[in-house]
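Just curious: can you write whichever protein you like plus the matching structure tokens?

***
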Amino acid sequence: MSNENALVTTRLDTLELICFTLEGQEFGIPITSVKEIIQPPPITRVVHTTDLVAGVINVRGVILAVLNVKQILNLQDTSSLSEAKIVHVYNQDKSAGVLVDNVEVVKEVSVDDIRQLESSAETNATYFDGVVQLEDHPLTILSVSKILNAPELMDYQEK
């Protein structure tokens, strides 16, 4: 019985993240906010939208907005779409595809190791839930809720 309780405690103290790269930097999204990872079908551009919206795709009959989060994270966009993936994320009643350069692995991090990240001229920390220092590099955790509720998207959401 005590082993079962220890396992539950351990799981509550950790966070599983789908990890991916954007312009050589590693980011993660909590696995509980990820519906699926998609090989990108052709993305249809939508006129008169913000640069954050890369376009829309059809996923089994459902139209899904694809977001280029590099725009709000102040990252250059130099990667090839041919190697990209789309991480289908959701939060409450909203969902979207997040365009990423490459999906790496699922990593488990200790909740105690997550630190707040300050905004700087190079980084917009508004969309981060924190950062974890791994052995050789930082892993930045993106906030799905904050991305899906980005002010840049407010004009394009259903009222």
Remarks:
- The longest strand covers residues 14-22.
- The two ends are 50 Å apart (CA to CA).
- Residues 1-10 have pLDDT under 50 and may be disordered.
